[in-house]
Write a structure and sequence with these properties.
The chain is an alpha+beta fold. It has helices spanning 22-30, 35-38, 114-118, 120-145, and strands at 10-18, 42-48, 56-61, 64-74, 78-85, 88-99, 102-112. A hairpin with a 2-residue loop joins strand 5 and strand 6 (88-99).
Length: 146
C-alpha cells in the first residue's frame, strides 16, 4: 500500500463530505479524460491505456505539463498516483468511504525535490489551494449528478 512521503518538505491532507453515491464520486474522479470538464484547474488530461497500476496519464494544470503514473487502485476505495514533474516528485493518495448516503473523500499529497526545498512555504500554500479547489469542484459536480 502506497503512502505519501512523510519526510517531504510539503505535505497536504484535506477531506470533504459529498452528498452523492460512491459510484458517482468514483466515476467522476477516475474518468481522467473528463477532468477538464469539471475541474477548472485542469486544462486537459489524457489517460494512456486502462486505469491500472503502471499506466500513466498526462495532464496540464497551472501551466505545468505533468505525467503521473498510477501506483495503486482499489476500485471505489483508493487511488494513488505520482511521479516527477519539473523537478518535483509528487505522491498523491485519494481515499473514498461511503457512510449513510454520503462519501468522505480524503486526499493526501507530498512534494519533494530541489524546487520544493527552495520554496516550501510558497509551494505548500499553492498545493493546499489546488487540492481545496479540486475537492470543491468534485463535490459540486457529484452533487449535481446525484
Amino acid at each position: 500500500m502506497y503512502t505519501i512521503d512523510e519526510t517531504a518538505p510539503v505535505t497536504v491532507r484535506l477531506s470533504t463530505v459529498i452528498d452523492a453515491a460512491l459510484g458517482t464520486v468514483w466515476q467522476l474522479h477516475t474518468d481522467i479524460d473528463a477532468w477538464a470538464t469539471w475541474n477548472a484547474d485542469v486544462d486537459e488530461a489524457t489517460l494512456n491505456g486502462p486505469l491500472q497500476p503502471g499506466n500513466s496519464f498526462t495532464w496540464k494544470t497551472h501551466g505545468l505539463d505533468i505525467t503521473s503514473t498510477v501506483l495503486e487502485i482499489v476500485p471505489g476505495e483508493r487511488i494513488v498516483w505520482g511521479g516527477p514533474a519539473n523537478g518535483i516528485t509528487g505522491i498523491h493518495v485519494w481515499t473514498f468511504a461511503q457512510t449513510d448516503g454520503q462519501v468522505t473523500v480524503h486526499t493526501e499529497e507530498s512534494w519533494s525535490g530541489a524546487p520544493v526545498d527552495a520554496k516550501a512555504e510558497e509551494l505548500g500554500k499553492a498545493l493546499h489551494h489546488s487540492l481545496e479547489t479540486w475537492l470543491a469542484s468534485l463535490k459540486d459536480q457529484a452533487e449535481q449528478h446525484n
